[in-house]
Amino acid sequence: MTTNLKLQAALAGELELAPKPTKKLLDRIQTILEGTSDIYYNTGETSPLTDEEFDALMKYYLQFRKFEAGIEPRSNRKIVDVENIVPELVGTTDKTNTMDEITDWFNNRSKKLGIGKDREVDVSVSLKYDGNSVVTFIDKDGYIKQALTRGKGGKGADVTPYFEDFHIDLPKEVQKLFLQDDTLMAIKNEAIMYFKNFDKLNIESTTKFANPRSAVAGVLSSPANKKYAKWITLVPLAIKMVKGGKLLTRKQQYKMIAALTGDEKNDCYQDFIMWELVGTTKEVVGGISDIYEQVQNTLRGQLDFLIDGLVIEYNEQGFRDRLGREKDRNHFDVALKFRYMTKKTTIKDIEWYVSNTGRLTPVAIFDDLVFNGATCNHVSLANYDRFKKLNLSKGDGVIIEYRNEVLSYLTPDPSVVYGSDPIPAPTTCPTCGQPVSLNKNKTFLACTNIDCPSNKAGRIVNWFSRLGIKGIKEATVNDLLDNGLITDIPSMYSLTVEAVEAMDGWQHKSAVNLINAINSVDAAYDYEILGAVGIPSVSTETTKLIFSKFDLNDLHMNFIYADGVNDEFKYKDWDMDKAKARILTVPGIKDITANKIINYVNENRIMLTDITIQLPVVSRYKTHLDDVAKTAEDNGIITGKNIVFSGFRDDDLKIQLTEAGNKVTVSGVSGKTDILVVKDKSKETSKTKKAIELGKKLVDVAEFKEKYMK
Q1: Of 264 and 481, which is predicted with more confidence?
Q2: Half-sphere CA count of 384, side-chain side, radius 13 A
Q3: Quick check: 72 and 151 in contact, CB under 8 A?
Q4: What digits encode the pLDDT tens for the residues 650-704?
Q5: What is the 3-state secondary structure (H, E, C) of 277-295?
Q6: Is the torsion defined by CA of 80, 84, 89, 93 positive or negative?
Q7: What is the fold, at CATH topology level, of the domain defined by 453-518?
Q8: Regarding beta strands 523-525 and 617-619, do their DSSP bridges make them parallel or antiparallel, or are they unpaired?
């Protein structure tokens, strides 16, 4: 429950939204809106209202009264009059919820501008980032001299200390805007937090935040959280030069923003994603509708940060000047909110699933909720630690935040009083019935039975899956385990067609297909072996990173590689401490990961030996990379570049480029991009336009292969 007592009182009881409200009702709603805004901007608490409830209440209230957006900073903060310095960069945007409302908005603006339906207009559509508004003032050397929140009534909180370690590399075209030594560049930013950083924050911080938006507010509201500011990312939205700086049109601002975010050194910035539409109002509205559906239904679920709509604005400076601004609201832009992605429900139960490492994961079960046409009725609580802190009971109210088809997030509903009997954690494994244990840090439960079917079957399926072998399903492995034909990964290689087809329900053809699948890979790199055996929380990508620098002999493990000969795989005595020390020299590898690898190898020597006996060739990945790089250099193949593919797929080319030391993606073009490769460079797309704007190399596939893959 929120600590705001006035808000608690206002939320108590039913709200009847009458067609003609009393002053008492409107005062009560105002208290709710202001109290919820205070939580939104000044704390990391969970809001008692979902976005849908807040917007509906605001829409009702605005029919009868005006509401000044934002909230005054808390009294323990230094207050600065932001609006007096840069009024254009503070305030809020009017909101709409449907395309019909967008059509009405354009018709209204066209009438005010006195333009006909055939008049061509220039409009931009950008993502509405869901974070906290922060205005930064940057000097000619790229340092943030001051940072202020939006606040209320033009008065914001000074949050400069949180951004004092940020440094902006100013491209030449941006440097030209500083006409005097004391000129400052004021930037309106949305401060956001990537999901991956949000997860890190909730692990490291004693405060558990509801979502990335509340996490940003929580970090900026407390000096004790300053150390977590490193996980905040800024999205530049608008620019104004102050103290003798050059005046910028909106289109000039876009160019400067692209220059800032396109510089790979400015990793504190997220790209400002925007579409430009030029045409009649009807054509523009049609284009907005297409973008809305594309982002709402596809892009939104692919992003690593929260967005909750689109922002639409006129680009023509004359239109912007004529439509103007009233108090804290522009009349030349509007927000189109997405369908709501948070809903309230109640807990039915918590079930526990056993992973292939033996770890138990709690999963909350609740009544069906529908988001974007997808049904959501359960969500992972991640681990025992979060399960314990949530302390949920059957019937408790919760808020479900839907991110995409495979990822949702649960927080308690602060407006609901919890039950008195929390759901208990299991004491035995749901699969095998053996006792479970709590790890030293009390963060997760694990099955103590090394022969647990979930553990065994999962590890075996994981092995073949990571080696790229398809068709070996968990049900098949469980069948083999139940019939006593296998006990672990190595025993899979001893199976015979006769033994498999003798099982109930198996035919000769199916047995042959299984044996062929098992033996379809008879060679592997060293990193593939350790990456596929199922070391807890250690992926193949992690082992690949390690073995790109070392082989197992380098790591003092001193085992004999087969090197193309079916030699017996032997271990000699090895120094665990020296092996760990070398692993820790690989960038990105933490102490906990090194310990997991070393301990697993030490405890599973016999199984690893048996596995490698079954694989005739165990090769050094490091040697392979050295050979590929030398061959690439000798043959004139490009190396060390950031390459983006667009409009085609060529897995062989991607593998060849990656192994030659290049980074190949299909994501958007940015300042970090060196080359954009397209199917046909004569066809203009958003990526080709961006590449040209940023001065990046643009080539089609045939030209690329001829020029760079000799």
Answers
A1: 481
A2: 19
A3: yes
A4: 878 888 888 777 788 876 788 888 999 988 888 777 788 888 988 899 999 888 9
A5: EEECHHHHHHHHHHHHHHH
A6: positive
A7: DNA polymerase; domain 1 (1.10.150)
A8: parallel
pLDDT for res 492: 92
CATH code of the region 342-447: 2.40.50.140
pLDDT digits (tens, 9 = 90+) for 592-633: 888 888 888 877 777 777 777 777 667 778 777 777 777 776
Q: How high is the pLDDT of residue 10?
A: 59
Q: Among residues of the chain, what percentage have pLDDT more than 70?
A: 88
Instruction: Tell me, rounded to whole angstroms, the distance of Cα 545 from its chain centroid.
Output: 22
Inter-CA distances, 541 with 148, 377, 457, 529, 589, Å? 41, 32, 22, 12, 11
Q: What is the per-residue pLDDT across 253-273, written as a single tens digit (0 to 9) for each?
A: 999 999 998 877 777 888 888
Question: Running DSSP on this structure, what letter comes out for residue 298?
Answer: I
Which pLDDT score is estimated for 428? 94
Closest CA to 364 of 310, 400, 328, 323: 400
Burial 663-679 (b: 16+ CB within 10 A, else e): ebeeeebbbbbebbbbe
The predicted pLDDT at position 417 comes to 61
- The pLDDT assigned to 564 comes to 39
24 CB contacts (<8 Å, ≥6 apart)? Answer: none
Topology classification of domain 635-708: Rossmann fold (3.40.50)
Angle at Cα 136 formed by Cα 131 and Cα 140, nearest 5°? 145
Q: Which residues pair with 187 in a beta bridge?
A: 136, 239
Average pLDDT across the chain, whole number: 82
Q: Which amino acid is at 490?
A: P
CB distance 235 to 270 below 8 Å? yes
638 residue type, one letter: I
How many distinct helices (H) and strands (E) make up the chain? Answer: 27, 26
Left (φ > 0), alpha (ψ -120 to 50) or beta: where does 341 sit? alpha
What are the extents of the domains in the chain?
5-62, 79-91+126-278+305-330, 342-447, 453-518, 523-627, 635-708
Give residues with Cβ within 8 angstroms of 1, minimum separation 6: 8, 48, 414, 415, 417
Report the SS3 class of residue 131: coil
Identity at 340, one-letter amino acid code: Y
Fold of 79-91+126-278+305-330: D-amino Acid Aminotransferase; Chain A, domain 1 (3.30.470)
Report DSSP letters for 464-522, one per residue. HHHTT--S--HHHHHHHHHTTS-SSHHHHTT--HHHHHTSTT--HHHHHHHHHHHTT--
Taking residues 168-184, report their average pLDDT: 88
- For tokens 């055939």, name the residue: 118
Residue 352 makes CB contacts below 8 A (sequence gap 6+) with 360, 361, 362, 363, 425, 426, 430, 445
Check: CB of residue 155 under 8 Å from CB of residue 72. yes
- Tens of pLDDT, residue by residue over 439-471, are 877 888 988 776 777 778 878 888 888 888 887
Say if residues 449 and 434 touch (Cβ distance below 8 Å). yes
Q: What would the mean pLDDT of 491-520 be, rounded to a whole number?
A: 92
Closest CA to 71 of 43, 37, 45: 37
Q: Tell me: the pLDDT tens digits for 62-96?
A: 888 887 665 565 555 677 766 667 777 877 788 89
